[in-house]
């Protein structure tokens, strides 16, 4: 891991990075990677529901990056609500810095949903609520941030969709999760087709040691070898720094 | 060469051979409808005594499905037709009542419903349960109702979560809840075949600029029905892509699409007479159902046939 830090001279530039689901798990690990690779004067917006955990993360990041003048803002909102999405966009607009050369949006917030037989999903409100957080929210937020920071020459724009192997692989009892991940993969694929100046990456991080995985184990009895979040986050960071990926691609931790 | 994690639809590993035995005798009290395709000894000529549920049945492809189904189901069958337009549904119901099948006893029920609302799928399930009778040997659910979404805007313009939620409710959630409700209402049992059809699109597989809602919804549905196929090996699940049809949806596509090259290609298809009639595409769908050899969960496009 040390090799990546010492041999890669690339940075994310001086810009604004927004990470959703930043308080724990993969989002938190990404926040650490981003703060390390951002140039002085950059802004990092951490979005999650828990203000307490976000503030702890902010303190941790600021203590690690003292000299870097990284401005960290915590946005404690529920992204399954339009108010949550609007507030995130509002703060992004408010905290934008002059002479920014990079916007990086990482759509990581997600939920597992009920793992259950297909025939059990007769409740439209439950399904709508799930799709609202896992699909609509990512679309509305991405659109909102694109409106705040329109593409222009000299501005590097990167969007990450934290995806899953289950975006392309159907798994019994996982209809909600598979459906939402497949939806997001296509959604970000359309964005990539439309916006030649936005680099879009769907990244499948592999099975990681997160709270979501605890739920998966409890509900399914599965017992994979789990990756440390930091390891998968480092790999995603390398992809972003190298910036060689084709926009719209769906890449998996185990492939790159 | 890096191995791709993207599974093409052809790699879907579900191989299912379906054996279907009729235990009743065929007694025709009316002339057998003329066959428009060749019969082999293994191909069925009808879909049995069926309860067939069709959403978006009032016009376009859904209406063509209702008409073809009426001709292919045996006497004692019921069609449950769901749509928002009461007038159009009743007109179709009247037309079918006057048809040969209607006169032979085909029952047609109408359900006026907005599938994007909670009551929508529930009312269709209720009507289907009420329409069921013990002689029914085949449940056929055709998830056809859909909307195009606003194709005049690009992805970056969809800042309103409510609009996206509403779109997904109709185009994704309702087909999950309706299908789940029907499967619960009519569980697997010997002597009952269950077929679930998802009307899909090339847009489920390929991103189209300025079509974010439609592509997202179709991709979501296709995965949804693939999960169903994986879970329920006794169920026949067909993701049928009907091709570019000459419908109101197509008219909206060619007149409102923001992306110039997509709009032109739709416009050219129309002006060059390359759009398919709903009837022509529906005929192919019926053939697929009668042959019943498709791989459950597979994406089958009319141009593959």
UniProtKB/TrEMBL annotation, chain A:
Matching InterPro entries, A to Z?
Biopterin_syn/organic_redct, NAD(P)-bd_dom_sf, SDR_fam, Sepiapterin_red
* Database matches in CDD domains: SPR-like_SDR_c
Q: How does it assemble?
A: Homodimer.
Q: Where in the cell is it found?
A: Cytoplasm
Q: What is this protein called?
A: Sepiapterin reductase
**What terms describe the molecular function in GO for this protein?**
sepiapterin reductase (NADP+) activity
Q: Which Pfam families match?
A: adh_short (PF00106)
Question: Keyword Cytoplasm on this protein?
Answer: yes
Which PANTHER family does the record match to this protein?
A: SEPIAPTERIN REDUCTASE
The Swiss-Prot or TrEMBL record describes its family as follows: Belongs to the sepiapterin reductase family.
From TrEMBL, chain B:
Q: Where is the composition biased (Basic residues)?
A: 15-27
A GO biological process held by the record: tetrahydrobiopterin biosynthetic process
Q: Name one GO molecular function term.
A: sepiapterin reductase (NADP+) activity
Can you say where in the cell this protein is located?
A: Cytoplasm
Coarse class of the primary localization is: cytoplasm
Region: Disordered, residue numbers? 1-41
Composition-biased stretches, type Basic and acidic residues, lie in: 1-14
Give the GO cellular component terms, alphabetically. Answer: cytoplasm
Q: Entry's CDD domains?
A: SPR-like_SDR_c
- Return the EC number: 1.1.1.153
Family statement: Belongs to the sepiapterin reductase family.
Cite the record's note on assembly. Answer: Homodimer.
Q: What is this protein called?
A: Sepiapterin reductase
């Amino acid at each position: 891991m040390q090799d990546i830090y010492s041999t890669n001279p690339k940075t994310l530039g001086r810009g604004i990075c927004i990470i959703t689901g930043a308080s724990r798990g993969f989002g938190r690990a990404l926040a650490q990677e981003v703060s390390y690779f951002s140039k002085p004067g950059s802004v990092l917006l951490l979005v999650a529901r828990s203000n307490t955990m976000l503030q702890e993360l902010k303190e941790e990041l600021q203590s690690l990056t003292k000299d870097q003048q990284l401005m960290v803002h915590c946005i404690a909102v529920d992204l399954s609500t339009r108010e949550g999405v609007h507030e995130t966009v509002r703060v992004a607009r408010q905290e934008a810095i002059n002479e920014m050369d990079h916007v990086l949006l990482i759509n990581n917030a997600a939920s597992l949903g009920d793992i259950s037989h297909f025939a059990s999903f007769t409740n439209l409100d439950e399904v709508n609520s799930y799709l609202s957080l896992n699909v609509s929210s990512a679309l509305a937020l991405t659109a909102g941030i694109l409106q705040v920071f329109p593409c222009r020459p000299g501005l590097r724009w990167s969007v990450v969709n934290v995806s899953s192997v289950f975006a392309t692989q159907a798994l019994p009892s996982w209809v909600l999760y598979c459906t939402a991940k497949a939806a997001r993969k296509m959604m970000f694929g359309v964005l990539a087709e439309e916006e030649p100046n936005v680099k879009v990456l769907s990244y499948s991080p592999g099975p990681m040691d997160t709270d979501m995985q605890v739920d998966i184990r409890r509900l399914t009895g599965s017992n994979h070898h789990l990756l440390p979040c930091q390891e998968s986050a480092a790999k995603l960071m390398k992809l972003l720094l190298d910036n060689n990926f084709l926009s719209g691609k769906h890449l998996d931790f185990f492939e790159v | 060469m890096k191995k791709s994690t993207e599974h093409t639809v052809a790699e879907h590993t579900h191989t299912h051979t379906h054996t279907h035995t009729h235990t009743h005798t065929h007694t025709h009290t009316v002339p057998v409808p003329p066959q428009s395709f060749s019969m082999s000894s293994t191909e069925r000529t009808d879909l049995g005594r069926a309860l067939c549920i069709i959403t978006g049945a009032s016009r376009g492809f859904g209406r063509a499905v209702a008409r073809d189904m009426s001709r292919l189901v045996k006497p004692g069958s019921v069609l449950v037709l769901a749509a928002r337009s009461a007038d159009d549904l009743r007109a179709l119901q009247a037309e079918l009542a006057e048809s040969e099948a209607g006169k032979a006893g085909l029952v047609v029920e109408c359900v006026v419903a907005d599938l994007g609302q909670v009551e929508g799928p529930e009312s269709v399930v209720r009507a289907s349960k009420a329409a069921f009778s013990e002689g029914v040997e085949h449940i056929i659910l055709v998830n056809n109702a859909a909307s195009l979404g606003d194709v005049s805007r690009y992805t970056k313009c969809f800042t309103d979560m409510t609009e996206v939620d509403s779109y997904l409710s109709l185009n994704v959630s309702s087909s999950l809840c309706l299908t789940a409700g029907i499967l619960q209402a009519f569980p697997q049992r010997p002597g009952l075949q269950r077929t679930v059809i998802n009307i899909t699109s090339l847009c489920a597989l390929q991103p189209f600029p300025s079509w974010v809602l439609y592509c997202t919804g179709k991709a979501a549905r296709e995965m949804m029905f693939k999960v169903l196929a994986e879970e329920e090996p006794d169920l026949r699940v067909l993701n049928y892509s009907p091709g570019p049809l000459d419908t109101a949806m197509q008219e909206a596509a060619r007149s409102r699409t923001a992306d110039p090259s997509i709009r032109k290609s739709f416009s050219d298809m129309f002006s060059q007479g390359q759009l398919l009639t709903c009837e022509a595409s529906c005929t192919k769908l019926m053939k697929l159902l009668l042959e019943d050899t498709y791989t459950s969960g597979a994406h089958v496009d009319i141009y593959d046939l």
